[in-house]
Amino acid sequence: MSKWLTALIALAICAVVGLRLYHEGKMIRDSKNPEAVFHELKKTAERGNRKAQYRLARCYDKGHGVTENDSLAFQWYMKAANQGSGKAMYQVGKCYKNGEGVAQDLNLAFTWFSRAAQDDNAHGQYAVGKCYLKGIGVAANQEMARGWLRRAIQNPSGGAEVLAKIKKDAAKGDEDAKNILQIIK
User: Fold this and answer.
1) Counting Cβ atoms within 10 Å, is residue 2 exposed (0-12), middle (13-18) or buried (19+)?
2) What is the pLDDT of residues 28-43, one digit of tens each?
3) How many other CB atoms sit within 10 Å of the CB of residue 88?
4) Which run of H or E residues covers position 130?
5) How far apart are CA 113 and CA 96, in angstroms?
6) DSSP SS3 for 150
7) Helix axes 86-98, 70-82, angle to 10 degrees
8) Could you tell me which of 134, 49, 61 has the C-alpha nearest to residue 92?
């Protein structure tokens, strides 16, 4: 019985340490020693923590604490996405759409955006709406575009951020953003 209790305590400690490292990784940009934080985050990611995998991918994607590397960013996004991270699914879609770290494939971009959207990720929903609007990886469909774009901006978790970005882009003269504002009315 004491072995089970010891194992349970050890598991709880690992979870707390993993969560701490994940949060430290999230703040890697502000760290006085981002390389050290990066290496600790990587250890947690290698143990399978999907949040740490996502944060590690962001580090590779943006060059925080490590040299920017699109290929490694894609690999870590994919690991987190395969564990159900909606944020990572969206990023995998972006990688496929833009050909960053992987060969460009608009059909796979749409597939991964759709997975993120189904996971209730507002950015994924927005991306699916834009794909339907412009026929990226799927046949253009104005009604489907309108539905997904509205769903994205109404999403309680990230919808306000998506709408703010659309408005900001429209104010800068982005014609797509202006068109989207008209569509979602």
Assistant:
1) exposed
2) 555 677 788 888 999 9
3) 28
4) helix 122-134
5) 10
6) helix
7) 140
8) 61
